[in-house]
Amino acid sequence: MSPDLDDEFRWLEALAGAEATAWVRARNAETSDVLADDLSFAALRAELRQVLDAADRVPFVHWDGTYLYNLWKDEAHPRGLWRRTTLDEYRRAEPGWEVLLDVDALAAAEAEPWTWQGAIVQRPGGERCLVRLARGGADASVVREFDLTTRTFVPDGFTLPEAKTDVGWIDADHLYVGTDFGPGSLTASGYPRIVKRWRRGTPLAEATVVYQGRDDDVSVYAVHDPTPGFVRDFLGRRLDFFRREEFLRTVDGELVRIDVPEDAETDVHREWLLIALRSDWAVADRTYPAGSVLVTRLDRFLAGERDLTVVFAPGPDSAPGRHAWTRGHLILNSLVDVRSRTELLSPGEQGWRRTPLLETAPGDERHVVVVDTNPEHSDEYLLASTGFLTPTALHYGTVGGPVETLKRDPAFFDPAGMTVRQLFARSADGTRVPYFLVSPPGEPTGPTLLTGYGGFEMAWTPSYSGIVGRGWLARGGSYVVANIRGGGEYGPRWHRAAVRENRLRAYEDFAAVATDLVDRGITVPARLGIEGGSNGGLLMGVMLTRFPELFGAVVARVPLFDMRRYHLLLAGASWTAEYGDPDDEADWAFLREYSPYHNVRPGRSYPPVLFVTSTRDDRVHPGHARKMAARMRGYGYDVSYYENVEGGHGAAADNAQLAFKWALMLRFLWRRLTVTAH
């Protein structure tokens, strides 16, 4: 079957096409006229902007050497101030910050809509960095060398034009670079296929190729580890979203394979190799189950030994989470029934000793995560704790010492009388699906907002949102987070249960949560709204077309809808391991069962829907939302559409745009769920 068959709106995929641009402007005007045209919208947007720009919110930091780096956005600096300070200063109520780069001033001076995409500080040394700037929030960025001492861009320094670039320091005069070198240098997913070693003062065209992948890989990469006593280089190719091959590159240029399963994640720190398994691994007369986290000495592993220590063993209700190394220890997050556990693991002659970090009491709804460590220099760490009703706090500790709270977000809404419950629904195949319900005080009388994601092994955990709190909960609405299959809430098995041909299980899980909310008397379909973005936007599209009777309104952000052409648009080819390959007729047979663009029909009873996307989203093509909106409009359905010119995959480039986007979505949902009934 041709990808173009029955696609009368293919012309809307032209990002800058005159006809497509005119269509977008007309839809934006219609939506703004209906939803953003009065004082109540302006008041809501102003409240949300206050949350985003609050001067007393936590300035989250990234640790690099002796400095803590932060990008700060507020009303006066909507695109951000990149700045740094020391830990001693950060402890103060009003830290003294050294401003390194004013992104707004740079954007104004260069007449470019720059947004901050991060910086890579040279190690060791820390006097230079590679700054990444993107136009309008896109994934593709330009790279410029920056002097942290003079706080200026380096004349004739390393610079790279706009691309989805992978770059890193080797030493003061050499970089590893994977970028768009011209025809044939990118994979089908639009990421680097070739990585080169680039010497200062020479043209990029003369850089030396050190590694190449294949067209159907997702990308290739090279990393230099400058840790004193453990200096080394690693090269690799990402075969798909979950599989990769990685090699240690010797000083002679020989590549030594790190012989782990292709779908395993690895991390090297000093003498240690950490292996996180996505599938069962039979090695040395033992089988380690998927979800296990193993540690061994890298040199022994490369020599053929398989003396592996299990530092996390999955259970029926548990899953591994994020980890981080300090200089001599390992911090490991895990989940038990989607509730966090954080432990410090310390190596010794008797094995790895475990110590709980920042323990929460039974009934405490906070979720604890590792924010950062300073592994080259110390055993210090930063943790964050957060919950639906508990403002986010940043904590500091050193191994062997107490944990202190450095900063805490203000309360953006009054949680008095609100409750958080974890409930479980039964999916169509009998699987027990957890979800969190946040309820306002007393008997709920407002509408209910349900969200979820269910993809790419990402776990949706409790977190504090001033936007949801101020804009929804404080008005009397209930809020629900569904932990459906496809995510990582119960590890790899939970994810694998809903990939490719089993994708419908994720959608049945979400429908089961919606049904359970009604069965428990928490809400009714006409007052139940749903919202999700990216893969969660695809979830919203399937709910709209497959289970429309369950919902009163739908919001889909930066969504995938056309599963026949998704792999041909921008980064879509990198997701075939998750969804399937539409060019394979066997895969298309199950993709077409739920592809929203191919399953919307005339003459059905669909709830009203709002699609929100960005012209500058170079990850999920805005053509998905454009074409779906056009088709639904043609059928006469109640569909609203808003496309921000900037914003990238977040559909907002600064706090003003973010406040507008959320005010638009919440206003749409509140109106549809309280004023009119589906």
Describe the secondary-structure layout.
Elements: H1 18-35, H2 39-53, E1 62-64, E2 67-72, E3 81-85, H3 87-90, E4 98-102, H4 103-110, E5 114-121, E6 128-135, E7 141-147, E8 152-153, E9 159-163, E10 166-171, E11 174-178, E12 194-199, E13 208-212, E14 219-225, E15 232-238, E16 244-249, E17 255-257, E18 265-269, E19 272-276, E20 281-283, E21 286-288, E22 293-297, H5 298-302, E23 309-312, E24 318-325, E25 330-336, E26 339-348, E27 351-356, E28 367-373, E29 380-386, E30 393-398, E31 403-408, E32 419-426, E33 432-439, E34 448-452, H6 466-471, E35 478-482, H7 492-496, H8 504-519, E36 528-533, H9 535-546, E37 553-557, H10 576-579, H11 585-591, H12 596-599, E38 609-614, H13 623-634, E39 639-644, H14 655-674
Parallel strand pairs: 34-35, 34-36, 36-37, 37-38, 38-39
Antiparallel strand pairs: 1-2, 2-3, 3-4, 5-6, 6-7, 7-8, 7-9, 10-11, 11-12, 12-13, 14-15, 15-16, 16-17, 18-19, 19-22, 20-21, 22-23, 24-25, 25-26, 26-27, 28-29, 29-30, 30-31, 32-33, 33-35
